[in-house]
């Protein structure tokens, strides 16, 4: 099934992506920039994906890819909400129906990989730094993730 999007915004321009990078103080991976130039936010169909957490496979659903604007469902909004709860080298790029973010590692040894953060696995200690062992691994790259979106068997 070909990946399609509904409820998306106008694709971003390279100039707008540079503005967002300056606002965030972070460089976005090239693969994510290419995605934003074609697709900006919205609901994908198919929208289900498999992830692995502590050796166990499970399934989740994408409600929306976050947009980089200043309206509802924005990357900035999620980054502010989750900044002390997700690894510092990740950015939220999408969310599930319950608001749990799908993350893209933007630097470090995990750069380019996609992860799924879930409230139920968040550390109880609010001072504990969120590490990758609390996340579900989704894909080695954004393109791999997008290509693996499917309907659950």
UniProtKB/TrEMBL annotation:
SUPFAM superfamilies: SMI1/KNR4-like (SSF160631). Pfam families: SMI1_KNR4. Residues 11-148 form the Knr4/Smi1-like domain. InterPro entries: Knr4/Smi1-like_dom (IPR018958), Knr4/Smi1-like_sf (IPR037883). This is SMI1/KNR4 family protein.
């Amino acid at each position: 099934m070909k990946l399609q999007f509904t409820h998306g915004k106008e694709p971003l321009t390279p100039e707008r992506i540079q503005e967002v990078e300056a606002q965030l103080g972070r460089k976005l991976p090239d693969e994510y920039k290419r995605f934003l130039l074609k697709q900006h936010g919205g609901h994908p169909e198919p929208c289900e994906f498999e992830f692995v957490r502590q050796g166990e496979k499970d399934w989740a659903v994408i409600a929306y890819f976050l947009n980089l604007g200043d309206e509802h469902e924005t990357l900035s909004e999620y980054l502010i909400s989750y900044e002390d709860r997700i690894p510092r080298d990740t950015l939220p790029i999408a969310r599930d129906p319950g608001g749990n973010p799908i993350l893209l590692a933007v630097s470090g040894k995990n750069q380019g990989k996609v992860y799924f953060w879930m409230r139920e696995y968040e550390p109880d200690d609010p001072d504990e730094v969120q590490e990758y062992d609390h996340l579900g691994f989704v894909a080695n790259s954004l393109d791999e993730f997008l290509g693996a979106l499917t309907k659950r068997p």
